Amino acid sequence: MARPASLMKQTRTRHSQAYKDEALALAERIGVSKAAEQLGLHASQLYGWRSKTQQTRTSSEREQALKVECIHGERFTSRAQMRETVFEYVETDYNRQRRHSTLGHISPEAFEARMSA
Known about the structure:
6 helices; elongated; mainly alpha
């Protein structure tokens, strides 16, 4: 007994990384929903591609960003002083500015401002 055409599994289209990058750039400019509609994709595909792109940032890139933003040009007299500086940067600057998914993808500062208003 043959399955109806609507129940048959569709083949998945594989998109090149260049296509994904261009699609994400378009989504950044005009919004995910509109970009997905223009490209004939599901918005969830674009969200997934964006998430995967962010996750693939290597630790060396994160370390480089930390170095540039926090410790570039600093002279430390001890490891403890360096550790304290990095800890202070991460806890007071970085974590307060970055977006948190548990807060609805807004920064903790914006969340606190919204809650106190």
